[in-house]
Amino acid sequence: METLSLLWDGFAVAALPINLLLIVVGCFAGTLIGALPGLGPVNGVAILIPLTFAFGLDATSSLILLSAVYYGCMYGGRISAILLNIPGDEPAIMTTLDGYPMAKQGQAADALAISGVASFIGATLATIGLTLFAPMLAKAAIYFGPADYFALYVMAFATIGGITGADPRKTLLAALLGLMLGTVGLDPSTGVARYTFGSFNLYDGFDPIVALVGLFAISEILFFLEEKAHGGSMVPPGRVFPRLTRVKEGLGASLRGSLIGFIAGILPGAGASLGAVMSYSFEKRISDKKGTFGHGDPRGVAAPEAGNNAASGGALIPMLTLGVPGSGTTAVMLAMLISLNIQPGPLLFERSPDLVWGLVAALYLANFTLLILNLPLIGMFTRVLGLPAWGLMPLVVAISYLGVYAITHAAFDLLIMVGFGILGYVLRKLDFSLVPIVLGLLLGMDMENNLRRALSISGGDFTVLVQSPIALFIYALTAAFLALSLWLARRGVVAPLHAEQAED
Amino acid sequence: MSDRLAGFAFFLLATGYVWLSAGYTTSFGDPLGPAIFPRIIGIPAILLSLSLVIWPRHNATWAGPAGLMRQGVAVAILLAYALLLEPVGFVPMTFIAVLGLGLLMGAPPLPGLLVAVVAAPGLYLLFDRLMGLPLPLLGTWIS
């Protein structure tokens, strides 16, 4: 009951004219970014963050905008997956498997409608799940001490690599690189300048926002330049209006996909791609009696779309309640909150109920907006796919530059951004994932501070780290996650995702 | 091979990182001090990078000569854009960057030029005039 009244207050925040406007703008921009091949949620959100700062939006409005973009991308990714056989973003890869064959059979309108409805079901169920579970987790997390937070960070880094399936040594190295980059600058508790090499520009350390825009937006440009020719041929849409009977065929798969995706989203570091992969594999196993999967089965379109949308809602839970993001995009949002001096975590629910519940309410509104944008107005977005990339990608660069310049007013930061862009490109080519770097850069200072606090309490005795029952529980959970991911990998449930693709 | 090189680069980085941490000392403050945390993260990084050198698994395929050329030119444009934004100004530099990157991405010359001609003043008007983000219209060298 308490939750309902808080949610009601949240709707009062979300219904402010500025927030309603941001929801519509965010949903529109998100669907567009998701639909364009090469740009995914993490790039889109990274590019928009400097702009939210520059416009002086408050934390609630910024978070509403970015979450609307995040949800919108999950809807939009399917459009190019179905029409072009090119996933608009990584979570939409699974949608190409059955969506493109359906389009080739002249059922593009059906496939778009099925996946649109599946997206709505997945995202709405996940938002309901967020409403119910996030406050419970936040209540439990109030009892966390410094040693427990340290354990939580260890879990975040350990699980992010274990589950994605790439070489776990590289994921750990990437996380450690992020932590190293995070120590650059003045040490907050002793005032010693570390790794600044005498440059005053580095005394504040690397601004995570600048690093993010470089890692995700600039590196994407370099990727894009590898090949000269891009794009596929668009399938003619066939019939204009979807048939309701086809949409119904996907309902069961949507519900099952939502549940699996939601759980995948909550796991730290797993994200929407894993949600889509797991939902599709599961649906294929239980429903593919006649071998129609892969040849245009509506259930094969519904399951991964419900899965990736549900995962994006689930990924917000650990980000808001524990301050440990569940996916690349939520890591980027965390960077924004930290830069606005808002520390996500259990206290967020006590101190800023407006922000938390305003966001949750906005997500419900965003879902309805997206349903309208993605069913009746879908034609608008399919036309955008005809636009050439050479016209759009340079604009992404210009917007990144003006956004970063507007918040820092320093050409030095633009150079840092380009540096991170090159670093991000090289690391992705070498099959290192970028999300752990972001996590390390973001959480490094907090991790060190919590370690310091724990050791100050114990007077320098390191055993304090394993004395709290909560910390022990978290370490046990970490071990269980790692065991589970090894088991999943061995059974071949999770196809290894490659770091070269844009992350979610 | 690329894993070996990556491991070696990380090894150099992490070793240097740990080595430099020895210089960070204070006589006051907390029990941890400024040097311990860098070692806690640096030493595992050394071990992991060595394991990559000894047991490599992945081999990266880089872009062909034409692709590398395009990437090199793009990096030059990006660096020039960053360095010259203040001296030359947002509108001229955005024009150059959008045109250059567009051509690299395979834009036909005339439409590419058209996009740059519209985008450079367009973005300035949209973000500076309409939405109030201060951007340098023309830089210190020109105005």
From TrEMBL, chain A:
The keyword Transmembrane applies. It comes from the Bacteria. InterPro entries: DUF112_TM (IPR002823). It holds the Pfam family TctA. Residues 20-439 form the DUF112 domain. The chain crosses the membrane at residues 12-33, 45-71, 111-137, 149-166, 172-193, 205-225, 259-280, 322-343, 355-375, 387-408, 414-443, 464-488. Keywords: Membrane, Transmembrane, Transmembrane helix. This is Tripartite tricarboxylate transporter permease.
UniProtKB/TrEMBL annotation, chain B:
Coiled coil: none annotated. Keywords: Membrane, Transmembrane, Transmembrane helix. The keyword S-adenosyl-L-methionine does not apply. The keyword Transmembrane applies. The chain crosses the membrane at residues 36-55, 76-104, 110-127. Residues 5-136 form the DUF1468 domain. InterPro entries: DUF1468 (IPR009936). This is Tripartite tricarboxylate transporter TctB family protein. It comes from Paracoccus amoyensis.
